[in-house]
Write a structure and sequence with these properties.
- The structure holds 2 protein chains of 2 kinds.
- Chain A has 24 helices and 10 strands.
- In chain A, the strands form 2 sheets. A 6-stranded parallel sheet of chain A has the order 1-10-7-4-2-3, with helices on both faces. In chain A, strands 8-5-6-9 form a 4-stranded mixed sheet.
- In chain A, a hairpin with a 4-residue loop joins strand 5 and strand 6.
- Chain A is elongated and about 100 Å long.
- In chain A, 44% of the residues are buried.
- Chain B is α/β, with parallel strands linked by helices.
- Chain B contains 13 helices and 8 strands.
- In chain B, the strands form 2 sheets. A 4-stranded parallel sheet of chain B has the order 2-1-3-4. Chain B has a 4-stranded parallel sheet with strand order 6-5-7-8, sandwiched between helices.
- At the A-B interface, helix 1, helix 15, helix 18, helix 19 and helix 20 of A face helix 1, helix 2, helix 3, helix 4 and helix 8 of B.
């Protein structure tokens, strides 16, 4: 980022103001997500006990994350024994450079990519395009976003904000196809482009949903079959995966695959769940000649070092917390300005990209807790937003705000002074209409859009005193009731 | 039973009737109500803003004030959650940890106290009208209060309770969030209030006055005809 660009917090305010008043888009997103919610409730109900399933998933991820070194090395041993290559990338640059060097060394010209948020995280496409490689996103939603020149809107549903006619217009403009309102026809247009991309590509790049330690495999979950083609057809494959994606045993997927499908999309199982154990083995008829796994740290170890928020590494990127979040529903995905949107993004982005620049995301929450309630792996999401707020205030308190809270504390520690102050509330209420919604209104950010209640003449404590006196009087007069 | 009321600062000044309604309900049940004069604020505003030292300074005062209470009753799920859930975290590893935990253990949200501590569901209340109930998030998700208020409202004569579509969706108040991000907060209020309007209710009832300040603030500006009531006010009416 250049020094002249708006800080992310300012950009967020500007974008949030715009998007939260875009009623048609908000309505469409809410509608799509209420359909998700209905499907998810139906599927979740088919688990014998969803609560126990969540607890089991949290326990498995806790075990995996707290022994990350052990499980990742176990994967590496098994995977490399079959001829796979593993590269450990500390940060974005190391990951990008490894992939760029590999592409150059192998004389790669075109690349096909299946959905990988890690790719977004390290700005891989930009780097590849800059070096002159052709890159095509093969997930339909990602492909649409690539054509549009926009980041994904939601890390599971990349183009959920677009209407069918907007996609049709986009295809018309970028691909010269005729307008259509049929989802099938739109899909076929993309399919024709993508089929060619698989065949022409010399390198495939994917992410990975799970790293299975005991068999040395990566598991990829998808609905379109595009990841299978991305892995299977080009000669070289690179899977770029965050180190936290590990599960100890293949058997754990018996829980995680249906759980990811249920929480992510409301499906019983996602369309395709494939396990990859390395390059094509002797006697096998398909698969890449070379299979590279790039393990991405990129400050995940900062979260690992924080016992309070370490559980954020349990995340299986199902997106459920976005889908239930009233903030997400009203401001949309792009407003966050992050790779990972929504509640989980607001928790982890400050760890990945700096607390000072990204603390505002933790502030922009009503702390309603819908995210934590829905999280299938039991991450204490909304309390971590509180923890980020606390850490931010401790690291660099905002001068004005700190003064405000010190003044607040001064008052609230002195009951007599507080009582005196509350005596002025009715007077304030009487005078407030004179300045309400003007520049000098101290609660203007409230009164701009909402009425502020007037303080009645007698506070509770005054009324209670009167009530007690009346009771005492009554009992003195002999009326015990 | 001796019941010690914790009346949050904004209820004290802005919604005194809510506090008085709680007093009437409890006294009718034969309990002694006390209100320690020296209580102020639970400390949630600085706590939620990240200023935990300041929050602790305010909270320490309340811990001292309520130390000898038999039970502490809060008329706001949110402030109740501050006592019950967040005091133990705020004082974790601090000198007042044990005292904070003791306060948490004897704090009750109003409806939970009536239904689950006292075992009362019918208060002999009468209230004519069509109403919908809003679940305050702190009460719902921090304290797990969902059924108790509905159980109580079911026994109010004359009251027709209609569930709204977005009962568990946040109203967008969120304390300082409401003024730090007023546009987002207001958009959330709009969604909530549209859901309320769809029920064609005349009243919105909640066990949290802070949510009602937000909901009422939006309704009064944009609709005007739907009234907000705290659960205690409904239960106290005859």
């Amino acid at each position: 980022m250049t020094a002249l660009a708006d800080p992310p917090s300012q950009q967020f305010q500007v974008d949030a103001n715009r998007t939260s008043s875009d009623s048609p888009r908000r309505k469409a997103v809410r509608h799509a997500l209420s359909n998700y919610q209905a499907a998810r409730d139906r599927t979740g109900a088919t688990f014998t006990d969803w609560k126990s399933a969540r607890a089991a998933a949290a326990t498995i991820k806790h075990e995996a994350v707290n022994h990350l070194d052990q499980y990742l090395e176990e994967f590496e041993k098994k995977f490399t024994a079959r001829g796979g290559k593993v590269f450990w990338a500390n940060d974005s640059k190391q990951a990008r450079d490894y992939i760029l060097d590999l592409a150059e060394e192998k004389g790669v010209r075109s690349i096909v990519k299946s959905k990988a948020m890690t790719g977004e995280e390290i700005h891989l496409n930009e780097a590849l395009l800059e070096k002159g490689y052709g890159v095509v996103e093969s997930d339909l939603g990602e492909y649409i976003q690539q054509l549009k020149g926009e980041a994904p809107y939601h890390f599971v549903f990349p183009c959920m904000h677009l209407r069918r006619d907007e996609i049709s217009d986009l295809f018309e403009k970028e691909l010269g196809t005729a307008k259509t309102d049929s989802p099938e026809e739109l899909t076929m247009i993309a399919r024709r482009v993508l089929r060619r991309a698989y065949i022409e590509a010399d390198m495939g790049i994917s992410g990975g949903n799970f790293i299975v330690a005991d068999t040395g495999m990566i598991s990829i979950t998808e609905n379109e079959g595009n990841a299978r083609l991305t892995v299977g057809l080009p000669k070289i494959h690179v899977a770029l995966i965050g180190i936290e994606k590990v599960v100890p045993r293949l058997g754990d997927l018996a829980l995680f695959l249906p759980m990811l499908a249920t929480a992510g999309t409301g499906q019983h199982l996602t369309g395709y769940n494939s396990m990859y154990g390395g390059p094509r083995q002797p006697g096998e008829i398909d698969g890449p000649d070379e299979f590279h796994v790039v393990f991405l740290d990129n400050h995940r170890t900062r979260l690992l070092a924080d016992p309070e928020q370490r559980d954020a590494l349990h995340c299986i990127r199902c997106g459920a917390c976005l889908n239930v979040c009233p903030i997400f529903k009203n401001i949309g995905g792009h407003t966050y300005g992050t790779t990972y949107q929504g509640p989980i993004g607001s928790v982890i982005t400050p760890h990945f990209r700096g607390l000072e620049d990204w603390k505002h995301l933790s502030g922009a929450s009503s702390l309603c807790g819908a995210c934590t309630e829905t999280c299938p792996v039991g991450i204490d999401i909304h309390h971590h937003l509180l923890h980020n707020r606390r850490n931010a205030a401790a690291q660099k308190p905002a001068a004005g705000e700190q003064f405000l809270w010190k003044a607040f504390t001064f008052l609230m520690k002195r009951p007599a002074l507080y009582r005196l102050a509350t005596k002025f509330a009715p007077l304030g209420s009487l005078l407030h209409p004179l300045i309400a919604r003007t520049m000098v209104d101290p609660v203007r950010s409230w009164t701009d859009t909402r009425e502020f209640p007037a303080a009645p003449l007698h506070s509770f404590r005054a009324q209670f005193k009167t009530h007690q006196r009346a009771q005492a009087l009554a009992s003195n007069l002999g009326g015990t009731q | 039973m001796r019941v010690t009321l914790f009346v949050p600062c904004f209820i004290d000044s802005l919604y005194p009737n809510v506090g008085m309604a709680m007093v009437h309900v409890l006294e009718r049940l034969g309990h002694t109500v006390e209100f320690p004069e020296n209580q102020t604020c639970c400390g949630q505003p600085p706590f939620n803003s990240g200023y935990w030292d300041e929050a602790r300074a305010v909270a320490s005062k309340q811990i001292a004030v309520f130390k000898d209470a038999e039970v502490i009753l809060s008329g706001s799920g949110s402030c109740g959650a501050m006592f019950k859930v967040f005091y133990p975290e705020l004082f974790h590893g601090q000198p007042l940890e044990a005292e904070a935990k003791a306060i948490a253990a004897k704090t009750w949200e109003f409806s939970e106290f009536l239904v689950n501590k006292l075992g009362v569901t019918d208060l002999g209340a009468r209230f004519e009208g069509r109403a919908t109930f809003h679940d305050g998030c702190h009460g719902l998700r921090e304290l797990g209060t969902k059924l108790a208020p509905r159980e109580l409202l079911k026994h109010v004569k004359g009251l027709e309770l209609v569930e709204m579509g977005e009962a568990e969706t946040c109203c967008g108040f969120g304390g300082t969030f409401a003024v730090k991000y007023p546009q987002i907060s207001t958009a959330m209020a709009e969604v909530k209030c549209n859901s309320i309007q769809e029920t064609q209710a005349d009243y919105v009832i909640s066990n949290d006055s802070s949510c009602l300040m937000q909901i009422g603030g939006w309704l009064d500006r944009n609709v005007g005809s739907i009234k907000c009531l705290h659960l205690a006010e409904v239960l106290a009416s005859r």
